[in-house]
Structures are given as C-alpha cells and as structure tokens.
Model the fold of this input.
Amino acid sequence: MRDATKEAIARRLKEARKLSGLSQAHVAELIELQRPAISEIESGNRTVSADELARFASIYDVSVVWLLGKVEDEVDLRDEKLQLAARELKKLSGDDLTRLLRILATLKEAE
Amino acid sequence: MSRKLLGQQALRMALRTRSKAGVDLISPVCPFDVADRLGVGVRFVAINMEGLYVRDPLPRALISTLRPFGRRNFTCGHELGHHVFGHGFNLDNIISSGNKDCYDSGSSEEFLANSFSGALLLPSLGVRRAFLSRGWDLSRPTSIQSLSVATEFGVGYSTLVHHMWHNLALISSGTAKQLLKASPQSIRSEYLGYPSTRLLVLVDEYWLAKTIDLEVGMEVILPIGMLPEGTALSPVEASPRPNHFAAVRPGIIRAASHSAAIFVRIMPAEYEGLAKYRHLERNDEAETC
Done:
C-alpha cells in the first residue's frame, strides 16, 4: 500500500471514529486489538487488512469505499441514490450544510 | 387529505410501531430504542437543525445534539415517522427547488411525522395513566404535575401541554394557556426552592418507564430510599433534598431501594456520535493520535 494511500485511510479512520462517538479504547475493545494498534493505524504507521477495514466500517457505520478515499469528501447533490426527508436544509448555514454533506458522504451502503 | 385523516393515519401507525417494537400502549418509550428495533441507525450531529431522515441507501436518522434533551426525543420520533411512511426525496430537489411538497414545514408529510411522534411518545392511555395513577386531576393538572409527566415520557413540558390540548383533548384551551405561561425553568425553581437552570427529571414510585434517561448536566429526583450505585450520579450539594442527584458522567448504572430497582442511562452532554454508543463509559485519558 502506498504511503499516501495509507495516510489517507488513516485520516478517514480517525474521522470516522470521532463521528461515531468512540474513543480509541472503545474501538480497541470492539475490534479486539490492543489500543496502541488503533493509535498506530490512525497515525498511518500500521497497515490495515481488508478484513479489519470492513470491521472498522461496520463499527463506525461508514462505507468501506469512503474509508478507502474512493468517494468525494462531500456527497454529490445530484446523487439519485440518496433519498432524504429534511425540512430545514434550505435554512442551514454554509458551514452546517458542508458538515452535513460530509457526514452523508460517509454513509454505509446497503449490502 | 385533511389534517384529521392524517392524524388518524399517524395514530394507527404509531400504535402499530409500538406493537412492532414490543412496547405496550401505555408505557413511556425511548424513541432511540424504537429506532434500533426498526433497524434505523441514529447519529447525533452538531449541526444547527432539528434532524433529518435518510431513506436510502440505508435508513438513518440524524439528530442535532444542539437541541434540548426532550426535543431530541421528539425529533427522533418525527424522523421515525418519515421512516414508517416511506418519505424521502432526492437531495438536489430539497435544496434547490421551491417545491412545497419537499418537506416544507407546513407540508402533509411534516404534519404526519409530527403527529406520529406525538402518538408514539405520548399515547393517550399512557398519559391518562400517568396522571390518574398519581391521583392527579387529568383535566386540570398543575404545572409541576405536567412537568413531572413530561419528564417520565422524555418530552418537553410545552410538548406535553400542547399534545394534551390539541391531540388528546384532555385539557381545555384555558388550562393549556395557563400552563404555558409557566416556563420549565420557573417550575423547577419553584419546586426546588432555589433558581435552577438544569433539566430535572422527577421519578416517583409510579414511574413506568423502563429506564431513567439523562445526559451529563441533568438532575434527577429519585424516590425516597432509592440510591444510585457507582459515581455517575452525584448528590446535589445545594439541594435540601437527600434524593436529588446530578448526572456527572456517562454510563449505565443501577439505582435501587429495598423494593425496586431501575437502570439509569447517562449520555455525555452535546454528544456527537452513533446513538448506540451514547451510554458507553468514558474516561478522560488523551488519545495518543
């Protein structure tokens, strides 16, 4: 795995963990790894196996393709697959809308 | 479809949903637990909105953690309403169009979702039982009685009053307007005997909810003789009441007396993350990355 790719995955793993409300200690327990291993993974110093990546995605409720950096940071407004009921989107500030679109981009897809 | 018919439709669906979630028609219910039973993932986000429902690719509700505790519960019920009625539009349509059907606040979809949430969280039989079992006059409740019942059902004070007035027709407009003159803060302060801005949950021997749900910073009055285990609940020193506690750290603990026991679930204040992780214990150790 190229270093740049490893670092990008590490960044997204850390972002996904924070968005899920978990600490490194929680994740270590859930995924049955030592806590330093989580820290190493999030620093980009340890390679993540495909199996581990799938487990992280499941725990964080994000898609594997998002963790791999294969989708944009923000969801595409024209994405027909995304269907919402949202009464306040037009009132959101620019920052809040950006934040929302980033979260929507992470979402795990149906298997 | 008329508002009356929409309301009836919402009521039928709320009763069906309670049944599907294994909840009777009386007990208070946590909407996040119902979401879990229905397979709707809930995520708390620090975005200045109420919430939204994502139908596809997988059903999820995003709830703003910036709103008060009771309002978040009602919003979760609202988003579940969108789920059970299969609502959902393409994002581009919602943001760019002026189409009133795209979940304008006055649309029939929004009315249906609101009515569903009210019926899910505040069932008629349950509200009646809450007042009558305590020997309180259902048609002329006092503000502290109403606040007490609102906290048992996990909703805001004004939400309960409006529901009893408009949807259940249990109180007159005069009683409702009188109740709505008092703010939850003033009711709490009068009850405690000193000013308090902290949300207060009033638990007594008639409490029917399966758990006591709090977030750090909230306070609770437990029945006399019931004591919490551990340190997540701490006695409120300023209070003259020995059964007055403050939620000081997240986790799930047990509170028990010689005759009863209940779980107390505490989430962090302004929690961001998946609802299923909200009650995990947390320590303050720094992350190493």
